[in-house]
Amino acid sequence: MARPVDRDAKRLKIVEAATARFAEVGYEAASMDGLAAAAGISKGSLYDYFKNKEDLFYGAFEWFEQRVMRASMERLSEGANARERLLSFADASVSALVDNVALYPVMLEVWAAAAKGGTLQRFSQALQNLYIVFRAQIVTLICDAQQSGEIKQDTNAAALAGVLIGAIDGLLLQYWLDPSLDPRAWVRNFLNALFDGIATTKRS
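RE: above sequence
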């Protein structure tokens, strides 16, 4: 009697293998034959889970996004005050990206897909939603800190969150190009300097 197939587990295995393949050869060069071979399944089985290469690539993006987001959210409540919680959140986000830097080309491909006619709407919307979620978490931290008196009331939480995410994005791109950089330390230094400017009291 044939063993039942765990479709969720098999889909996850396919997505993980496909993500590595996309990172290795790029979206355009990746073929369904090559993606199926990377996952150790037949091409026909691959089509049982994804209708085309774009769908599989979108699945790879979602898997990578959730991997980073899960690592970040798990440490969101760590810390005795707003500074420590934001440092913990940023450190987890950067560490998750650094630990998966071999897969970073997938994000570059996603940004490219968000600019192309055929895939623009789907991928630009996905990126927009991703940034909305991350900004919202940082805005919540900043607003909580304003209510507790840790951060100046005139601080624009949305602007600060947007610029911080942009800084992390840019830093990770630099790290991908130059692995000698230390993005974790740089982000900590940046956030400590930032907090020194917006905090109601200075650190002793």
